[in-house]
Amino acid sequence: MTNASTPRTTQHLCACAPLRDWFCFLPQSRAGAKEGLSLLLPVILLLVLAPCAARAQAGGADKARAGGGPSRSGVITGHVRGEDGRPLAEALVQVIRAYARQPGQPLAASTDIEGRFRVTDVEPGLYGVNVLLAGYVNSQESRAYTGEEDRYYRPGDNLSVTLAKGGVITGTVRDANDAPVIAVSVRALRVRDAAGRSVAGTPRAYSFIPERLTDDRGIFRIFGLPAGTYLVAAGGGQRLYGAFNAYLGDAPTYFPSSTRDTANEVTVRVGEEVSGIDIRYRNERGHTVSGTVSGATEDTGTYGVSVILRRSTSGEFEGATVLSQDIRRGFSFGGVGDGEYDLTASQWRNERGGSVLSSIPRRVTVRGANVTGLALTLAPLASVEGRVRLEPAPGEQCGKPARTATVVETAVNARRAEKPRGQEPPAQPFYPVSGATPTEQGEFTIRNLLEGSYRLTARLPLETWYARSISLPGAAPKTAAAAAGGPPAGVVALKMGQTLAGVDVRIAQDGASIRGRVRAAEEGAALPANLRVYLVPAERERAEDVLRYSEVSPADDGTFTLTNLAPGRYKLLLRPVPETELTSQRPLAWDAVTRAQLRREAEAPAAPAVELKPCQRVADYELRYAPAAAGKP
Question: What would the DSSP string read from start to end of 129-180?
Answer without folding.
Answer: EEEE-TTEEETTGGGGGTTPPPP-B-TT-EEEEEEEEPEEEEEEEE-TTS-B
